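Let us work through a complete example step by step.
Step 1: write down the sequence.
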Amino acid sequence: MQIVFATHNQNKLKEIQALLPQHIKLISLKAIGCFEDIPETQNTIEGNAVQKAVYVKTNYGYDCFADDTGLEVETLNGEPGVYSARYAGAQRDANDNMDLLLQNLKDKDNRNAQFKTVIALQLHNKQYTYTGICKGKITTFKSGNQGFGYDPIFKPGGYEQTFAEMDLELKNKIGHRGKATKKLIEFLNKIS
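Step 2: predict the structure and record it as tokens.
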């Protein structure tokens, strides 16, 4: 089975590819000639995932899946949420985003947060969604150099390491994207 993963993010591509069984082959956006930024104009994580998958299916004709992920911080009423990638501005800089979040939490005791990933699948003109959540806490400083995004300041519940201090195998096992992807794989295995 071949399917397009609607992302230009090489880190996400690497994480998802590591989870997929060998009979499911990912096709990149580059391989189908999609080089433009796919719109993400919805006000929910689910909405953005669906929008990206529909965009690829409509404009390129391929069955595909897309994901969107947000970091939701309890004491900040769910911020940065759907705006996680551009929390500190349109430049989408991970360090700027982390610095702003740490600044906004400076005087807060409650550091509870969760990562939420929604995967939207467009397959045979039907749409499916799969959600993965990983609860944890925001640390007070950055630690680790694995992963990407907010990984250096997110410590999943039950662990003393941030995502950025974990190897990819452990992060995929307990993390939000891994959980959503496992649900996607279970479905694809049933139909392939």
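Step 3: interpret the result. The chain has a mean pLDDT of 94.
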